[in-house]
Model the fold of this input.
Amino acid sequence: MSQHDRDLERRARELYLRASRDVDPATAGRLRAARRTALAAPHESATRRLMLPAGAFAVVALASLMLWQPGATPPSAPPAVMQSADTEATDLPPDPDSADPALYQNLQFYSWLAYNDTQPSAAHK
Done:
């Protein structure tokens, strides 16, 4: 430590001691209360430090129970997506005889929707 650092430390200590003697009683009382609160805080933070791992464990346990449900069957794919082993995937729609009839109820709407998707509208410009 250099001489300059020692002088600075000595002056800072003298100023601190002088300022601590000149503190009014109300400020001194607030400082003592703040000191007591700060000294009492480690007991509370120890409790909080224990609660964090316990909370993390609870979240992991809940997530694992939500993901793993004993006895639950995996969701099956909708019939239109499922394919048998002897057919291959194509981009063609299914035959009207083997498909769900609801697919063919609103053909005019689907035609209108496809036509409007390809046309640039004034809202998109």
